[in-house]
Amino acid sequence: MFGSFVNITTNVNGIPYFTSTGSTVGTESVDYALGFRRIPAIGYLTISVDALPSDVTGTLPVRFTLNGSTRALTYFGGSPVTAADLQAGGILTAFFNGYTGTFQIISPISA
């Protein structure tokens, strides 16, 4: 069951669900856009990400634009999630804290 919270789709527990609106592959990073600016300042997010082109350099860090600010997606401990980790696309769960700049993946990534 889905509801709506400030024009953002949420599940029954209020966790926002986003579909990325595309990715931009640069020489420094892979950037995903979420297409929303009123993302809650602190909380969990569920994000559907597009598959990346097969020729993307796997070591590029992955970043997301949230509330007009670009943040690196990291693992516990701060190491970056890379393009190789999200190559095939899929659904991920992350924790976002806009006050501290934390954007950390919660869901494990496996083949």
Features:
111 residues, mainly beta, 4-stranded mixed beta sheet, globular
Description:
This protein has 111 residues and is mainly β. It has one domain (2-105). Helices cover 0% and strands 42% of the residues. The protein contains no helices and 10 strands. The strands form 3 sheets. It has a 4-stranded mixed sheet, with no helix packed on it.
Q: How is the main sheet built?
A: 4 strands, mixed
Structural class: mainly beta
Mean pLDDT: 82
Total number of strands = 10
Strand order of the largest sheet: 3-6-9-10
User: Uncertain segments of ≥5 residues (pLDDT<50)?
Assistant: 1-6
> Alpha-carbon distance between the termini?
28 Å
Summed up, the domain count is: 1
Task: Give the fraction of residues assigned to helices.
Answer: under 10%
Number of contiguous helices: 0
Rg is 13 Å
Describe the structure concisely for a colleague.
With 111 residues, the protein is mainly β. 0% of the residues lie in helices and 42% in strands.
Indicate the topology.
Elements: E1 2-5, E2 8-11, E3 17-19, E4 23-25, E5 30-33, E6 42-49, E7 62-66, E8 69-72, E9 90-97, E10 102-105
